[in-house]
Design goal:
The structure holds two protein chains of two kinds.
Chain A: H1 3-12, E1 16-18, H2 20-39, H3 50-53, H4 57-73, H5 86-94, E2 98-109, E3 119-129, E4 133-140, E5 143-151, E6 156-161, E7 169-174, H6 180-185, H7 188-197, E8 201-208, E9 211-218, E10 234-244, E11 250-259, E12 264-275, E13 293-296, H8 307-318, H9 357-370, H10 374-389, H11 396-412, H12 422-438, H13 443-454, H14 475-496, H15 504-517, H16 522-539, H17 545-556, E14 567-569, H18 589-592, E15 595-597, H19 598-601
Helix pairs in contact in A: 5-7, 10-12, 11-12, 12-13, 13-14, 14-15, 15-16, 16-17
Chain B: H1 2-11, H2 15-37, H3 40-56, H4 67-89, E1 105-107, H5 109-118, H6 123-134, H7 139-146, H8 150-167, H9 169-175
Helix pairs in contact in B: 1-2, 2-3, 2-4, 2-5, 2-6, 3-4, 6-8, 7-8
Chain lengths: 606, 176
């Protein structure tokens, strides 16, 4: 080893152990100072509130006189006390044909009682030209993931996705009249106009990236809502807009909000503006990687279907209850004091600090890898469950409700992020297996078994974002779970031939089945898609017809890819531990509350 | 980007974000200060002051580079001032933790040996060595923040590393 290497090693092996008293002193004093300063904001950041000023009669008179004088002099008095004409700022930026800006979306939770704290960040760089269109690069946690073009001259949308994965995908779509709102929605000037049209207050001056800036703050979120739409319920909202004092051009815009009942704060920031920067035509020529799979002319997919009508028809047929379990009306047994396999149940929920999806998934995989295999403890578990709960004498409903109670207990104790929860989820799987043996033709019981397995088995294991390795898929899905969904599909086909009215759950199971076998058995996957297409008029899932048709065509042509995405959710970092699973996965209540079929999402204002 | 986000949240008064920054960098700063001063009590005080000052200056603070480099530089600056005061008072190092009944900071053997060897180097060389070799700052960045010509910083590093290698020779031989 070279001496330089040895010295480097010396430096990298330096370590110090810090007694808690040191942390208490340093961090305690720092936090105390932070709190003190937070409670006394600098004078120039305190908003100048019109209502407060106007409270005093003398001031009212003085201001009235000043307004008259200002009007005579042609001064825009109401545009602020700073001498800034905010309307002129908007006029100024609207005069630029080209500009660059960066957008960032940051999701954070504060330290929660269970010790979790999450933060994730996505960033995009945006080039905008009134002549050529837009070019946007998206970065997720610092890694390029998507390039998106809206090309006005070519009349085309181009999205090149998955730069962070070995196989990139290029989707090209026509840019037509329906695309024009998308083009305008991405323009930050539109949002600036909305902020300045609202009841904002001036918040004085500050320094951003070395520039002296002057800002306004808006507290009413509804000002930013699209015309005719309301903002979702929020627990907190603020929006700030800063301009360069010297150039009077926007420097920084931010919106920060907390959805009602959510622990997550979402902050969107628009900054690094370069107004009037020359943008060459070559910037708007997509560079498609050599190994990229190109998909042309997908159109707008399900959005081209009238949403409300289709969703309401479908909802009528499916009782609008996407996650209603057939067993929800039954009481659940109390398993809170149950100890299994000698695992200590008094272990507190894991106090883990996780910072992002990668850490969450990595930790989840590491925890589950430490559990003993299910088959190894199955026999002992069965004996214990018989001794403690008498499972051999329970009927199907009692077994399934016991399984649900055990799953709930599993999630309460930390789910797949704990070393001490496996006895509960294994027990849930075991009782569901017994129920399935007793009622193999009941798809609702099979759903319960699938749910118990999917609760701890992920679709594919964590890999570093830039890994060139193919996805490490979990064989349980291609084997056991695919077999269970196949059984359900065969039962479904038989019932349909006898005039059965399909439900949303049949749709979900069939899509699961197609997804699970699209690699190993594409003809069966195509068959499932064809059956769903044929049943569309009867079942009412017209919202998904375009997707089903494209999936069927792709599978019949021997192509792979996603089948139909039917569940959507609000992106929420603290729910990351429930991915990657099947779309049908229900998880604990906190997860279910964030998930909804796509055809119903707009009904909740998502 | 995580650091930028944490700073942003600290500016909004987030104790969680400040705790995260502290947790992330406290050891690096303590090791730097111990290696520069070979005095654990002083190192603790310096890191204490760096964090408290950081909290106090947040309102006007804009992160333009790496937060770690910024905090490392602050620590080195404070350690330099401490060293000057210590030299002026010409007092022996009497308050090291080794002499206290219960250690609040326990350095590993590597750090103890390095700090002892470093003490035999001129302070300026120690600072450049630690900031570059341990803190990961480029020599150009060190020159910029200390207001010195790049050549001066490079020669301090060169002389320092040669002497340190000589001082730690036994250990290096053992490693090889």
């Amino acid at each position: 080893m070279k001496p330089e290497d040895t010295l480097n090693r010396v430096f990298h092996e330096l370590d110090v152990r810090v007694e808690p008293r040191v942390d208490q002193r340093i961090l305690g004093d720092t936090l105390h100072r932070l709190k003190e300063l937070a409670e006394t904001p600098p004078a120039d950041l305190r908003p100048m509130r019109w209502r407060t000023i106007m409270k005093y009669p003398v001031t009212k008179l003085a201001i009235a006189a000043a307004i008259i004088a200002a009007a005579l002099l042609g001064i825009h008095f109401f545009s602020g006390t700073s001498g800034t004409s905010w309307a002129a700022v908007l006029d100024k930026v609207n005069g630029f044909d080209t500009f660059f800006f960066r957008t960032r979306e940051v999701e954070t939770t504060g330290p929660r009682p269970d010790g979790f704290e999450f933060a994730t960040e996505s960033e995009s760089k945006n080039y905008r030209s009134e002549t050529y269109g837009t070019f946007c690069e998206n970065y997720k946690n610092g890694v390029l993931s998507v390039r998106h073009y809206m090309l006005l001259q070519e009349g085309q949308h181009v999205s090149i996705t998955s730069y962070d994965r070995p196989h990139t995908l290029c989707i090209r779509m026509p840019f037509n009249d329906r695309s024009i709102p998308d083009f305008h929605n991405g323009d930050p000037r539109r949002m600036i106009a909305k902020i300045l049209a609202g009841d904002y207050v001036e918040i004085g001056e500050d320094t951003i990236e070395g520039k002296r800036v002057r800002g306004v703050e808006l507290r009413d979120p509804n000002v930013l809502a699209d015309e005719g739409k309301a903002m979702p319920p929020l627990d907190d909202f603020s929006s700030r807009f800063w301009i360069d004092v010297q150039t009077q051009l926007p420097v920084w815009t931010e919106i920060s909000l907390v959805r009602k009942g959510s622990a997550v704060r979402t902050t969107m920031i628009w900054d690094e503006f370069e107004w009037g920067v020359p943008l060459e035509a070559s910037l708007f020529k997509p560079e498609i990687p050599a190994n990229c799979e190109i998909i042309d002319d997908l159109g707008h997919g399900p959005d081209s279907t009238p949403k409300t009508d289709a969703a309401e028809t479908f909802a009528q047929h499916t009782q609008a209850e996407p996650f209603l379990s057939d067993f929800d009306h039954l009481p659940l047994p109390d398993v809170s004091g149950l100890t299994l396999l000698g695992v200590d149940t008094s272990v507190p929920k894991p106090q883990v600090r996780l910072l992002g999806p990668d850490e969450i998934r990595r930790t989840q995989d590491a925890c589950v890898a430490k559990w003993p295999p299910y088959e190894q403890v199955q026999a002992q578990l069965r004996q214990e469950l018989q001794a403690k709960l008498g499972i051999d004498t329970k009927d199907v409903n009692e077994l399934v409700t016991t399984g649900i109670a055990l799953r709930n207990r599993f999630w309460e104790m930390g789910g797949t992020l704990s070393d001490a929860t496996y006895p509960y989820i294994y027990a849930a799987r075991l009782v569901d297996e017994i129920a399935h043996e007793k009622a193999p033709d009941n798809p609702a019981v099979t759903d319960q078994l699938v749910e118990s397995i999917v609760a701890y088995e992920v679709l594919y294991y964590w890999q570093p974002q830039q890994s060139a390795e193919p996805l490490k898929r979990n064989p349980t899905y291609l084997g056991l779970i695919a077999d269970l969904r196949r059984q359900q599909f065969e039962q479904f086909k038989a019932k349909v031939s006898q005039g059965y009215m399909p439900t949303w759950k049949d749709f979900v199971r069939a899509c699961d089945f197609a997804y699970l076998c699209m690699r190993t058995d594409p003809p069966s996957a195509a068959e499932a898609m064809r059956l769903l297409i044929d049943l569309t008029p009867k079942a009412g899932w017209t919202f998904y017809l375009d997707d089903l048709t494209k999936a069927e065509q792709r599978l019949s042509n021997g192509e792979r890819g996603y089948i139909v995405t039917f569940i959507g959710g609000i992106g929420d970092i603290h729910l990351e531990q429930y991915a990657p699973r099947l779309e049908s996965f229900q998880g604990p209540r906190e997860y279910r509350e964030h998930r909804l079929p796509r055809h119903l999402r707009h009904l909740k204002g998502w | 980007m995580e650091d930028r986000l944490l700073v942003l949240r600290c500016k909004r008064g987030s104790a969680g974000a400040m705790a995260r920054i502290y947790e992330k960098y406290r050891k690096d700063l303590l090791i730097l200060a111990i290696a520069l001063l070979n005095d654990k009590a002083a190192a603790e005080d310096i890191v204490h002051d760096v964090f408290v000052s950081f909290a106090e200056g947040l309102s006007g603070f804009r992160l333009t580079g790496s937060l770690k480099s910024y905090l490392m530089t602050c620590t080195a600056n404070r350690a330099r001032n401490h060293n000057k005061v210590r030299q002026r008072s010409d007092s022996p190092q009497e308050a090291t933790f080794e002499e206290q009944p219960v250690e609040r900071l326990v350095s590993n053997e590597r750090l103890q040996r390095l700090a002892a060897a470093m003490e035999q180097l001129p302070y300026e060389q120690r600072e450049v060595l630690m900031l570059h070799s341990y803190g990961g700052l480029t020599l150009r960045a060190i020159a910029k923040t200390s207001g010195l010509p790049a050549n001066t910083v490079m020669s301090r590093y060169r002389y320092g590393i040669d002497k340190l290698r000589h001082l730690l020779n036994g250990e290096c031989d053992h490693e090889t």
